[in-house]
Amino acid sequence: MVIARRPLLTATAAATLLAALWFVPSANATDEPGSRSGPAATTAAGDTAAGPRLADTGTGVDTTPYLIGGMTFLGIGAAFVTHSARRADA
Fold first, then answer.
1. Which residues are within 8 A (CB) of 7 and not within 5 positions of it... i.e. 6 or more apart?
2. Cα–Cα nearest to 27, from 2, 53, 61
3. Rg, C-alpha atoms of the chain
């Protein structure tokens, strides 16, 4: 009996990724009455907007590592696609 290993590896990788993403927390912006504390409790006098408020992410967040990591993974992905295309032509 011949087993095609590539589809099995692809299915295993997809299942592993989905299982890992199951544990990623979701970020729900809710505005529950009486739950304000800290810096969000002090609002400006003219701030009367109703509805959910987003979390204050602060200023000065260094995004350089995320940009470098994203560009690295993008480059690796492009290299894999190029390698696969060249290999398929040969």
1. none
2. 53
3. 23
Phi, psi of 49 (to 5 degrees): -70, 130
pTM (predicted TM-score):
0.37
Name residues whose C-beta falls within 8 Å of residue 51's C-beta, 6 or more positions apart in sequence: 31
Check: CB of residue 56 under 8 Å from CB of residue 37. no
Reported as a single tens digit per residue, the pLDDT across 28-83 is 656 566 555 555 455 555 555 566 666 666 667 788 899 999 999 999 999 999 99
Per-position DSSP letters for 22-43, written without gaps between them: TTSPP------TT---GGGG--
